[in-house]
Structure formats: structure tokens, C-alpha cells
Design the sequence.
């Protein structure tokens, strides 16, 4: 009884629920639902921006205005506010980053898709590595390697505490920053998907095990819907946080003093 | 777990990325970055710039128009003031001219009247002289006639008579001229 039920409904949800069966047999790691979704996101963003910005006008059309608002939001509220006037040159990358993370996150709650590529750590890891390379390159170009290292590693503190501070600074700046960027995004998407699985599948499991639990199943599904809205918030927030943190790392690298 | 093992599926560790996904993700994201950062966002910056320039240009144009209008107004005011002084000057000139003409006319009139008076006087004098001459002859004759009637033939002597009358008339004239 219990084993047949388990065969019908995969319970409890596991990591393997994130690695779906292949779309075409034999192509699995290269061509899966997740990699397909990445391509879809890239194509959708390229098409959206190229179509809305095919003929830019001084007085924007509605669609042009939407595209400009997205760029303007990241440009003014993230790049310029965090990095300063100099930050506008990073706005194109930051906007690309923001749009990509936001759309791939959104796939997690779009009905019929409900799987975010960012719940596979490979994609947040790529973005985090790019951010890491970006802020270090910017810092080295701005100050030169030695001065950048000095700025990053040696805080203004008494000399006798430096042996303790320098390794901490090194690890926090050069190791933990990319790691936390990647893991934060990945874990949020992973956990969000897991929670939705728990409440949705849990409802079915309870319904099948005992008819008297049906009202509780309904509550469970309602919870799943409510948590989907929470997910929507998390999705936007995580895309924003990833972008803001990248911008703030760039700002830190550009700053004169520690 | 037992089930997956039975199906022959490999275990996945969620924190270890699949290298194939890293490759796919890198290519896909690089493509996205290339297209958006090369073809879209720089054009947006250009549009923003153009918009700023359009607005600033509009303000500048408005300012220029305002300045020109002010300048024109000043110019018109200056011209108006100039015209007013011109008008005043012309009026004064006209008044002065009129006065001059009046003086001229008066002077001419006075001259004319003087001339007429002088001519009259001259004529009068000439007539008087004629009359006096006539009278003198007549008075002489009358006096001789009268004296002849009173005295008779005794004074008929030509020479004497002439001298006496002349003397008488000269006396008369010298007393009568006063």
C-alpha cells in the first residue's frame, strides 16, 4: 500500500525532484527543462528589448517606455545611487544581470513551467563568478594590483590586530562574496520550490491516505497558493539583491580608501 | 532513494554544479550580455541624452526668444522716446519758424507802410509846392489888382511894382513859415 502510493506520488520531495526526466533521451545534462528555460529566458529578453527598442523615439511609445523604465530603474536606483555618477557605465551589465535573474526566477512560479533554472547552482554560480571577476577587474584597473590589494585587505586598524584581520578580510572579500552570492540565490529558489512541492504534494498524499483528511488537503493547497505569492516577493527581492550586491562590490573596489 | 537506485539514476548533490549546465549557462548569458549591452542599452543612453538635449535645447530656445523679445521691447521703447523728442523738436522748430515768418511779414508790412507814407509825404510836399507857386503868382496879381484899384495909376510902373511885390511875399513867407 505504502510503496504503491510512493510510486504514484513522489513523497517526500527530494533533491531528485529538481533533476527532471530528459526531454529527449540521451541528451540529459546538455538539454533538459532547465537548460531549455535558460535559452528561453535569453531569447525572450533579447526579443523583448530588440522589438521594443527597434525605433527609439524621443517621445517614447508605451512598450519603449517599459523597456526604458527597466533600464532606468537599474541605472538610476542601483548603478548611480550605489556606485555614484561613474556607475552609469556599469548600468548595461547590471540591467542585463537583473533582467536575467528576474526572468529565470519567475519561471519558478509561472504556471506550466514552475521550475527556476536558478534552483540549479550552476547558473547562480556563473553569475557570481562574473560579478567576482568584474569587481576585482574594476578595482585593479582603478588602483593597480598592489594598491587594490592593500585597500581590500588592510583595514585601518592597529598593527597588532592586522594578522587577525587580513585573513578575515581576504576570505570575506575573495572567497565568501562570490560563494554567498551564488548560494543565496540558489538556496532561495531551491527552498521556494521545495516548499511549494511539500504543500502541493502533501495535499495529495493526505487525500489518498485518508478521505477524512480532505479538508486539511484543501488547507495545504491554499497554503501552496499563498506561498506562491510569497515566492513572487522572494523572486523580485533576490534579483534585486543580486544586482545591488554586485553594484556595491564594484563601488567598494572603486572607492579610494577601505 | 531505494527507488532511484533501482531505476539506475545517479545521485545529485544540489551544491555541486553540473559542468554541462555551467557551459550552457555561460554561453547563453554571454549571448544575452552581448546583444543587450551592444545593441540595446547604449541606444537607450543615447535616447536619454537626446531627450535631455531636447529639453535643454527647448529651454535655451525659449530663453533666447525671451531675450530677443526683451531686446525688441527695449528697442521699441528707445525708438518711441526718440520719436517723441523728435516730435517735440519739430514742434519747437515749427513754432520758431512761424514766429520768424510773422516777424518777417510784420517787418515787411512796416517797411511797406513806411514807404507808402514817405511817398505820400513827398507827393503832398510836391503838391504843396505847386500850390504855393500858383498861389504866389495869383496873390501877386490879386494884390497888384487890389492895390491898383486903391492907389490908381500911380504905382503902374513895372519895375517898381515887381520889386515891391517880391519883397512883400518874401516877408510873408518868412513870417508864415513859422
Sequence:
Amino acid at each position: 500500500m505504502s510503496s504503491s502510493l510512493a510510486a504514484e506520488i513522489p513523497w517526500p520531495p527530494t533533491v531528485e525532484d529538481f533533476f527532471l526526466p530528459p526531454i529527449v533521451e540521451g541528451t540529459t545534462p546538455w538539454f533538459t527543462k532547465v537548460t531549455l528555460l535558460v535559452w528561453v529566458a535569453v531569447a525572450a529578453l533579447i526579443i523583448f528589448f530588440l522589438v521594443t527598442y527597434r525605433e527609439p523615439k524621443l517621445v517614447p511609445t508605451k512598450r519603449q517606455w517599459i523597456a526604458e523604465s527597466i533600464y532606468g530603474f537599474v541605472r538610476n536606483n542601483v548603478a548611480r545611487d550605489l556606485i555614484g555618477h561613474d556607475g552609469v557605465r556599469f548600468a548595461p551589465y547590471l540591467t542585463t544581470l537583473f533582467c536575467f535573474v528576474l526572468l529565470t526566477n519567475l519561471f519558478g512560479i509561472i504556471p506550466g513551467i514552475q521550475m527556476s533554472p536558478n534552483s540549479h547552482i550552476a547558473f547562480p554560480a556563473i553569475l557570481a563568478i562574473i560579478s567576482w571577476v568584474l569587481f576585482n577587474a574594476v578595482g585593479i584597473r582603478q588602483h593597480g594590483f598592489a594598491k587594490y590589494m592593500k585597500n581590500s585587505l588592510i583595514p585601518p586598524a592597529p598593527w597588532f590586530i592586522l594578522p587577525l584581520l587580513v585573513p578575515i578580510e581576504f576570505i570575506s572579500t575573495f572567497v565568501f562574496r562570490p560563494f554567498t552570492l551564488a548560494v543565496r540565490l540558489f538556496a532561495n529558489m531551491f527552498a521556494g520550490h521545495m516548499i511549494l512541492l511539500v504543500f502541493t504534494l502533501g495535499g495529495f498524499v493526505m487525500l489518498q491516505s485518508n478521505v477524512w483528511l480532505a479538508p486539511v488537503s484543501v488547507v495545504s493547497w491554499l497554503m501552496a497558493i499563498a506561498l506562491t505569492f510569497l515566492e513572487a516577493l522572494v523572486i523580485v527581492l533576490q534579483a534585486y539583491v543580486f544586482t545591488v550586491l554586485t553594484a556595491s562590490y564594484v563601488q567598494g573596489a572603486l572607492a579610494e580608501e577601505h | 532513494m531505494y527507488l532511484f537506485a533501482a531505476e539506475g539514476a545517479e545521485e545529485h548533490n544540489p551544491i555541486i554544479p553540473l559542468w554541462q549546465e555551467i557551459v550552457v549557462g555561460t554561453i547563453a548569458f554571454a549571448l544575452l550580455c552581448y546583444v543587450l549591452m551592444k545593441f540595446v542599452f547604449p541606444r537607450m543612453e543615447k535616447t536619454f541624452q537626446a531627450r535631455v538635449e531636447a529639453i535643454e535645447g527647448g529651454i535655451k530656445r525659449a530663453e533666447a526668444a525671451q531675450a530677443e523679445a526683451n531686446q525688441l521691447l527695449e528697442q521699441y521703447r528707445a525708438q518711441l522716446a526718440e520719436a517723441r523728442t523728435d516730435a517735440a523738436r519739430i514742434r519747437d522748430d515749427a513754432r520758431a519758424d512761424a514766429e520768424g515768418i510773422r516777424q518777417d511779414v510784420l517787418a515787411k508790412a512796416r517797411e511797406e507802410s513806411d514807404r507808402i507814407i514817405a511817398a505820400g509825404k513827398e507827393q503832398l510836399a510836391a503838391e504843396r509846392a505847386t500850390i504855393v507857386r500858383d498861389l504866389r503868382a495869383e496873390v501877386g496879381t490879386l494884390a497888384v489888382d487890389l492895390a491898383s484899384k486903391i492907389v490908381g495909376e500911380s504905382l503902374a510902373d513895372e519895375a517898381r511894382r515887381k520889386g515891391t511885390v517880391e519883397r512883400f511875399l518874401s516877408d510873408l513867407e518868412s513870417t508864415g513859415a513859422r
In short: The two ends of chain A are 64 Å apart (CA to CA). Chain A touches chain B through 48 residues (CB under 8 Å).
